[in-house]
Protein backbone atom coordinates (compact mmCIF):
# COMPACT_ATOMS: atom_id res chain seq x y z
CA UNK A 1 0.00 0.00 0.00
CA UNK A 2 1.26 3.47 -0.88
CA UNK A 3 1.58 6.09 1.86
CA UNK A 4 1.59 9.06 -0.54
CA UNK A 5 0.28 9.93 -4.01
CA UNK A 6 1.71 12.89 -5.89
CA UNK A 7 -0.59 14.03 -8.68
CA UNK A 8 -0.17 16.74 -11.27
CA UNK A 9 -3.12 18.90 -12.31
CA UNK A 10 -3.39 21.93 -14.58
CA UNK A 11 -3.48 23.97 -11.35
CA UNK A 12 -0.26 22.49 -9.99
CA UNK A 13 0.79 19.64 -7.73
CA UNK A 14 -1.65 17.82 -5.48
CA UNK A 15 -0.41 15.48 -2.75
CA UNK A 16 -2.53 12.86 -0.96
CA UNK A 17 -1.17 11.19 2.16
CA UNK A 18 -2.42 8.48 4.49
CA UNK A 19 -2.70 10.13 7.93
CA UNK A 20 -4.27 7.41 10.13
CA UNK A 21 -2.97 8.83 13.43
CA UNK A 22 -4.36 12.36 13.07
CA UNK A 23 -6.46 13.43 16.08
CA UNK A 24 -8.37 16.71 16.14
CA UNK A 25 -7.44 17.62 19.72
CA UNK A 26 -3.80 16.53 19.56
CA UNK A 27 -0.84 18.90 19.44
CA UNK A 28 1.36 16.00 18.28
CA UNK A 29 -0.07 15.62 14.77
CA UNK A 30 2.50 15.47 11.98
CA UNK A 31 0.31 17.65 9.74
CA UNK A 32 -2.25 20.39 10.28
CA UNK A 33 -5.22 21.05 8.00
CA UNK A 34 -7.20 24.11 6.97
CA UNK A 35 -10.45 22.11 6.88
CA UNK A 36 -11.73 18.66 7.83
CA UNK A 37 -14.48 16.92 5.86
CA UNK A 38 -16.26 13.77 6.94
CA UNK A 39 -16.57 12.07 10.30
CA UNK A 40 -14.63 12.98 13.41
CA UNK A 41 -15.45 9.91 15.54
CA UNK A 42 -14.96 6.19 14.86
CA UNK A 43 -12.95 6.82 11.71
CA UNK A 44 -11.15 4.09 9.79
CA UNK A 45 -9.52 6.10 7.00
CA UNK A 46 -7.97 9.58 7.03
CA UNK A 47 -6.34 11.12 3.97
CA UNK A 48 -4.62 14.48 3.97
CA UNK A 49 -4.71 16.43 0.71
CA UNK A 50 -2.37 19.33 -0.02
CA UNK A 51 -2.06 21.93 -2.77
CA UNK A 52 0.24 24.95 -2.76
CA UNK A 53 -2.50 27.02 -1.04
CA UNK A 54 -4.81 24.62 0.81
CA UNK A 55 -4.86 21.52 2.94
CA UNK A 56 -7.76 19.33 4.00
CA UNK A 57 -8.33 16.08 5.83
CA UNK A 58 -10.90 13.59 4.56
CA UNK A 59 -12.04 11.33 7.37
CA UNK A 60 -14.54 8.49 7.20
CA UNK A 61 -15.77 5.20 8.65
CA UNK A 62 -16.22 1.79 7.10
CA UNK A 63 -13.26 -0.31 6.11
CA UNK A 64 -9.76 1.01 5.67
CA UNK A 65 -9.09 2.49 2.23
CA UNK A 66 -5.62 2.48 0.77
CA UNK A 67 -3.84 4.78 -1.65
CA UNK A 68 -3.23 3.20 -5.06
CA UNK A 69 -3.73 3.94 -8.76
CA UNK A 70 -7.45 3.08 -8.80
CA UNK A 71 -8.54 4.81 -5.58
CA UNK A 72 -8.91 8.19 -7.28
CA UNK A 73 -9.83 9.92 -10.52
CA UNK A 74 -8.84 13.36 -11.72
CA UNK A 75 -11.33 14.80 -14.17
CA UNK A 76 -11.28 18.41 -15.33
CA UNK A 77 -11.21 20.47 -12.13
CA UNK A 78 -12.38 17.67 -9.84
CA UNK A 79 -10.87 14.92 -7.71
CA UNK A 80 -12.91 11.80 -6.87
CA UNK A 81 -11.43 9.72 -4.05
CA UNK A 82 -12.33 6.47 -2.26
CA UNK A 83 -12.33 7.08 1.51
CA UNK A 84 -13.71 4.28 3.69
CA UNK A 85 -17.21 3.42 2.50
CA UNK A 86 -17.68 6.61 0.48
CA UNK A 87 -16.57 8.57 -2.55
CA UNK A 88 -15.62 12.20 -1.94
CA UNK A 89 -15.73 14.74 -4.77
CA UNK A 90 -13.53 17.81 -4.40
CA UNK A 91 -13.08 20.92 -6.54
CA UNK A 92 -9.51 21.66 -7.59
CA UNK A 93 -7.56 23.78 -6.74
CA UNK A 94 -9.44 25.05 -3.64
CA UNK A 95 -10.27 21.54 -2.31
CA UNK A 96 -13.89 22.46 -1.58
CA UNK A 97 -16.13 19.47 -0.91
CA UNK A 98 -18.69 19.11 -3.72
CA UNK A 99 -20.31 15.94 -2.40
CA UNK A 100 -19.78 12.78 -0.40
CA UNK A 101 -21.70 9.60 -1.19
CA UNK A 102 -21.70 6.33 0.75
CA UNK A 103 -21.56 3.75 -2.04
CA UNK A 104 -20.52 0.58 -0.20
CA UNK A 105 -21.56 -0.96 3.09
CA UNK A 106 -17.95 -1.36 4.17
CA UNK A 107 -15.13 -0.11 1.92
CA UNK A 108 -14.48 1.37 -1.52
CA UNK A 109 -11.52 -0.16 -3.38
CA UNK A 110 -11.59 1.68 -6.71
CA UNK A 111 -13.42 4.21 -8.88
CA UNK A 112 -13.59 3.97 -12.69
CA UNK A 113 -14.87 6.54 -15.21
CA UNK A 114 -17.65 5.62 -17.63
CA UNK A 115 -19.96 7.79 -19.73
CA UNK A 116 -22.14 9.96 -17.46
CA UNK A 117 -20.67 8.68 -14.22
CA UNK A 118 -18.55 6.13 -12.45
CA UNK A 119 -18.37 2.48 -11.45
CA UNK A 120 -17.19 1.88 -7.89
CA UNK A 121 -15.55 -1.42 -6.94
CA UNK A 122 -16.54 -1.84 -3.33
CA UNK A 123 -15.82 -4.58 -0.88
CA UNK A 124 -19.47 -5.66 -0.68
CA UNK A 125 -21.06 -3.93 -3.67
CA UNK A 126 -20.39 -2.98 -7.27
CA UNK A 127 -22.08 0.41 -7.72
CA UNK A 128 -22.78 2.82 -10.55
CA UNK A 129 -23.09 6.47 -9.55
CA UNK A 130 -23.71 9.58 -11.61
CA UNK A 131 -21.48 12.66 -11.62
CA UNK A 132 -23.22 14.05 -8.50
CA UNK A 133 -22.74 10.86 -6.46
CA UNK A 134 -26.29 9.54 -6.78
CA UNK A 135 -26.50 5.74 -6.87
CA UNK A 136 -27.94 4.52 -10.20
CA UNK A 137 -27.66 0.80 -9.43
CA UNK A 138 -25.88 -1.47 -6.99
CA UNK A 139 -25.22 -5.24 -6.81
CA UNK A 140 -23.86 -7.50 -4.09
CA UNK A 141 -22.29 -10.93 -4.50
CA UNK A 142 -22.00 -14.17 -2.58
CA UNK A 143 -19.00 -12.81 -0.65
CA UNK A 144 -16.65 -9.82 -0.71
CA UNK A 145 -15.49 -8.61 -4.14
CA UNK A 146 -11.85 -9.63 -3.87
CA UNK A 147 -9.92 -12.89 -3.85
CA UNK A 148 -7.30 -14.35 -1.54
CA UNK A 149 -4.53 -13.58 -4.04
CA UNK A 150 -6.00 -10.21 -5.09
CA UNK A 151 -5.29 -10.96 -8.76
CA UNK A 152 -7.84 -10.20 -11.51
CA UNK A 153 -10.59 -9.32 -9.04
CA UNK A 154 -12.10 -6.43 -11.03
CA UNK A 155 -11.99 -4.98 -14.53
CA UNK A 156 -14.17 -3.19 -17.07
CA UNK A 157 -13.69 -4.39 -20.63
CA UNK A 158 -15.88 -3.84 -23.72
CA UNK A 159 -18.58 -2.22 -21.54
CA UNK A 160 -18.81 -5.29 -19.29
CA UNK A 161 -17.86 -5.20 -15.61
CA UNK A 162 -16.09 -8.33 -14.35
CA UNK A 163 -15.83 -8.85 -10.58
CA UNK A 164 -14.67 -11.89 -8.61
CA UNK A 165 -15.82 -12.69 -5.10
CA UNK A 166 -13.80 -14.35 -2.33
CA UNK A 167 -15.22 -17.77 -3.29
CA UNK A 168 -13.84 -17.20 -6.85
CA UNK A 169 -17.29 -16.73 -8.35
CA UNK A 170 -17.13 -14.49 -11.43
CA UNK A 171 -19.82 -11.83 -11.83
CA UNK A 172 -20.54 -9.91 -15.01
CA UNK A 173 -22.65 -6.76 -15.22
CA UNK A 174 -23.51 -4.42 -18.06
CA UNK A 175 -22.94 -0.71 -17.50
CA UNK A 176 -26.72 -0.35 -17.15
CA UNK A 177 -26.72 -2.83 -14.26
CA UNK A 178 -27.98 -5.95 -15.99
CA UNK A 179 -26.57 -9.14 -14.45
CA UNK A 180 -25.00 -11.39 -17.09
CA UNK A 181 -23.45 -14.03 -14.78
| Rounded average pLDDT | 96
* Total helical segments: 0
The CATH architecture is Beta Barrel
Which regions have little confidence, pLDDT < 50, spanning 5+ residues? none
Can you summarize this structure?
By secondary structure, this protein is mainly beta. The protein has a single domain (4-174), classed as Thrombin, subunit H. It has strands at 4-9, 12-18, 35-38, 45-50, 55-60, 72-75, 78-83, 86-91, 97-102, 108-114, 117-122, 125-129, 135-140, 154-157, 160-164, 170-174.
Can you tell me about this structure?
This protein has 181 residues and is mainly beta. It has a single domain (4-174), classed as Beta Barrel (Thrombin, subunit H). Helices cover 0% and strands 49% of the residues. The chain has no helices and 16 strands. The chain has strands at 4-9, 12-18, 35-38, 45-50, 55-60, 72-75, 78-83, 86-91, 97-102, 108-114, 117-122, 125-129, 135-140, 154-157, 160-164, 170-174. Strands 1-2-4-5-3 form a 5-stranded mixed β-sheet, with no helix packed on it. A 4-stranded antiparallel β-sheet has the order 6-7-8-9, with no helix packed on it. 34% of the residues are buried. The mean pLDDT is 96.
Amino acid sequence: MIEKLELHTKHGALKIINDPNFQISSVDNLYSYDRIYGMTNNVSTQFGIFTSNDSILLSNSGGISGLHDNCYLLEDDFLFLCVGNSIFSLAIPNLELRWQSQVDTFSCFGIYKIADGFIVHGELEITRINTTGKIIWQHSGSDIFTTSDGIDTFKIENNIIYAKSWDNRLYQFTLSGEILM
